[in-house]
Amino acid sequence: MPPIVxxxxxxxxxxxxxxxxxxxxxxxxxxxTNRTTVLFVDGKEDYEKVLNNVKSEKMAYHTYTASSDxxxxxxxxxxxxxxxxxxxxxxxxxxxxxxxxxxxxxxxKESPLFLVVTDPVITLGKIMPNCDILFDQLQSRQLDALKxxxxxxxxxxxIQYIRNNIDTLIHEE
Length: 173
Known about the structure:
The protein is α+β, with helices and mostly antiparallel strands. It has 5 helices and 7 strands; from the N terminus they run E-H-E-E-H-E-E-H-E-E-H-H.
């Protein structure tokens, strides 16, 4: 679990440790620095208990996202205006074994954009081989064949650009 960092020095470190012993069932450790007190707790349940206690005591703190709660997000561009979120979700799951946590239709004046939030194991490397196929399947639901052909050419050009410049794009982040 990520550490819970309490801002400022703890006024009564012994009381803090006593409180932690009462709350936490598993192992924990406390690290005091010049400006913060850092709490390390094993186990999600104990982590939640300590975090709730810190919040209820109205302590200034920060923490980080647990690995299990992290996600990746990708933007789908160039799809037809009438593409439904449910269609995207179904195609991702059935055809590509990619489970989307959430899919949001982003509001734009031009072509629609969809933000797809996935588990952290779904990376660009896993998605790239599936992009062209997924795009074709989603666009096949559009009746205007010319529009589909134009969108496919834009999408193919964008994918090719990413493939050609992947090293540069990764290092820019």
